[in-house]
Amino acid sequence: MFPSILLDAGAQFLGAALFAGAAALVAAARTAWRRRSRAITGSGPGPRPVPGATPGPETPAESSE
User: How far is CA 23 from CA 14, 40, 59, in A?
Assistant: First the structure.
């Protein structure tokens, strides 16, 4: 069988990997939530309107009308 120190090191490595994975998932979820809330509210960085420009049609259906 394996010495207990190897089992302990393996358990610690797995625990650290699980913790790092959970932290990465939380960070990704927070980023996605921020992007979603900015898209809904319109706040945050985004394309700025050009002064004097006329907005074009949003969808191909609008351009055919």
Answer: 14, 26, 39
CA atoms of 21 and 36, how far apart (whole Å): 22
Q: Which residue has the tokens 């945050």?
A: 44
* CA 4 vs CA 10, 26, 29: distances in Å: 10, 33, 37
Listed by start position, the domains of the chain span 8-42
pTM for this model (two decimals): 0.50
Structure tokens at 63: 């351009």
Query: Tens digit of pLDDT for each residue in 26-55?
Result: 999 999 988 887 766 666 565 666 677 676
Q: Under a CB-based contact definition with an 8 Å cutoff, are residues 50 and 56 in contact? A: no
